[in-house]
Amino acid sequence: MISKLKQLSFGPATLVAAAFIGPGTVVTASLAGANFGYALLWALVFSVLATMILQEMAARLGVVTQQGLGEAIRSQLENPLLKWFAIALVIAAVVIGNSVYQGGNLTGASLGMAGLLGEQAAWMPLVLGVLAAALLWRGSYRLLERVLIALVLVMSLAFITTFLIAQPDWSEFFQGLFMPSLPTGSLLTVIALIGTTVVPYNLFLHAASSAQKWQSPEQLPQARGDLLVSIPLGGLISIAIVSTAAAAFFGRAVTLEGAADLSESLRPLAGDGATWLMAIGLFAAGLSSSLTAPLASAYALSGILGYGGNLRSWPFRLTWLAIIAIGVVIASLGIRPVNVIWFAQVANGLLLPIMALFLVWACNHKMMGNYRNSWQQNTLAAVVVLIAVGLGLRSIGAALQWW
Q: Where are the transmembrane segments (predicted)?
């Protein structure tokens, strides 16, 4: 028992939690709570379980093969058409998508900083972009891991404390957590909650970072212990944000358009302390995602183009530099990010099944040796993929009907 407890620690899975708890999650979770109360908390429970199933495969792939998902696809996918399709998909879904996300990440961090300093300034996205670039330029995985662990812990303290201050309705909270329901008009919100948690680019990030952290299949227990700590903690943060918004907004004559509105509207309900905590949490969420989005893009693109995962190589650095630069420009233009982030999260949910199928294929390949997926793991992965496909098709139908 003691040896198993020692295997529970923070590691690459913390990067995954830091990646999916960004401003997009804060916005999506806040809107879910404000519009539907506690009714959609079950979607986050499913999201956490689905994330753990997929991220375990990603971590195992990295530890066993010492490759990222992009490298595995490039080296083992023999059909040229499929290989080019995979490359195009990675560029479209991960690199281009993360460029847009980065603008939202820097905007979210700037909103959090403005909440702490008392005023919004045009220079904030640039300063935060330079800070992210400086940390990534060091090319030290250990440094990035430590910084992101610290940011995840800050987010946990800020959002969970705010949740407790807001005094949720505990009976409705547990009902929403364990009794699935789909209120009228909530389908796209469910898709968005799943899309903001089970993020496709995290599959690339986790596999590559696990390969750097651990060099032997005998270390798989540590990788799984890391997963058991970090992913549920990230899910708990999302649940806290939904519940805080539900307590503050649901059933009240208040309109919520973004995370900054949530922070300000908490003041009469829970006092200045909750407002400050929300600002701190939003800043940490934005900064952590401002690091992980460029990092994941660089891992994915460098891997699938055959440049490897050396954090100090020029192809790697140029990729994340481009992502940060585009993000700074988007954030500095003052575009309201709420709608962009919202629809990007929905698109993430639709792209997830394709990326997950690549991962399942890789984990059943002969390169995994004795560590290939068992039938139980394939069954769980198939369930996750099928549910994701079903939700994606329903969201397309709803969007077409609305159009």
A: 38-59, 80-101, 121-140, 147-166, 186-206, 227-254, 274-302, 314-335, 341-360, 380-402
Q: Are 59 and 333 in contact (CB under 8 A)?
A: no
Q: What is the pLDDT of residues 218-227, one digit of tens each?
A: 999 999 999 9
What pTM does this model have? 0.86
Query: Could you tell me where the DSSP H helices lie in 166-250?
Result: 170-178, 187-197, 200-213, 220-249
What is the spatial distance between Cα 385 and Cα 75, in angstroms, rounded to a whole number?
24
Quote the tokens at residue 113.
Answer: 């900083």
The closest alpha carbon to 360, from 89, 61, 94, 50, belongs to 61
Contact criterion met (CB below 8 Å) for 266 and 90? no
Residues in the chain: 403
CATH of 2-402, one of 3.40.50.200, 1.20.120.140, 1.20.1740.10, 3.30.2350.10: 1.20.1740.10
What is the pLDDT confidence band of residue 236, given thresholds at 50, 70 and 90? very high
Residues 6 or more apart in contact with residue 381 via CB below 8 angstroms: 53, 54, 57, 356, 359, 360, 373
Q: How many Cβ atoms from other residues are within 10 Å of residue 154's Cβ? A: 17
Q: Is the dihedral of CA 297, 299, 300, 304 positive or negative?
A: positive
CA dihedral 393, 98, 146, 53 (to 10 degrees): 20
